[in-house]
Amino acid sequence: MFENLMATAVLPASDLDRAKGWWHDVLGRDPIYADAEFGNLFYEIGGVVVLVYRTDFGGTAQNTAFNLVTENLDRDTTELRTRGVVFHDYDLPGLKTVDGIAQLGDLRSAWFSDSEGNIIAIGEPTAEMMEMAKKIRAGAAS
Q1: Per residue in 71-105, pLDDT tens?
Q2: Which of 20, 45, 87, 105 has its CA 20 to 30 Å from the CA of residue 32?
Q3: DSSP strand pairing (64-69 vs 48-54)
Q4: CA distance 45 to 39
Q5: What is the DSSP letter of 3?
Q6: Are 10 and 55 within 8 A, CB to CB?
Q7: In the Cβ-directed half-sphere of 100, how many Cα atoms lie within 13 Å?
Q8: Are 89 and 47 within 8 A, CB to CB?
Q9: Is residue 110 classed exposed, middle or buried when 0-12, 13-18 and 19+ CB atoms within 10 A define those classes?
Q10: Among 42, 34, 112, which residue's Cα sits nearest to residue 76?
Q11: What is the distance between the alpha carbons of residues 104 and 114, in angstroms, rounded to a whole number?
Q12: What is the chain's alpha carbon radius of gyration, rounded to the nearest angstrom?
């Protein structure tokens, strides 16, 4: 039944023009498709299609809405900072950031918000975890 389905990530936006500018200026992405009837924007990043749609509830969730995985967190957080990104600082039980970056065992991660207030994580897993993710992704694509 599900073998013919396709999945997308979904992010809400209260202002699609602002969101479109943020995706272009910060992530270097332009829509791969714009739905003229509803105004929905579709992006591709890391092999994932992301639907950005208009709603008054954009940015109201207080959890991570989208996750990015990188092999070099320092390089990518530096680049994001040059594009105006401010990383969240947390001091919670089991989660403390230093200069916006948390060390969680062998995993390092940072969180920031998009123009709509959606929380995005960017993390650097161990080399073994990254290799496993690549194998899983390659297997899922076949």
Answers
A1: 999 999 999 999 999 999 999 999 999 999 999 99
A2: 87
A3: unpaired
A4: 19
A5: G
A6: no
A7: 19
A8: no
A9: buried
A10: 112
A11: 23
A12: 16
Pairing of strands 33-34, 95-98: unpaired
Q: How far apart are the C-alpha atoms of 92 and 120, rounded to whole Å?
A: 18
> 103-130: per-residue pLDDT in tens?
999 999 999 999 999 999 999 999 898 8
What is the edge-to-edge ordering of all strands in the sheet holding 119-124?
64-69, 119-124, 107-113, 101-104, 95-98, 91-92
CA 100 to chain centre: 16
Q: Pairing mode, if any, of strands 9-13 and 48-54? A: parallel
Long-range contact pairs involving 103-106 (C-beta distance under 8 Å, separation at least 24) = none
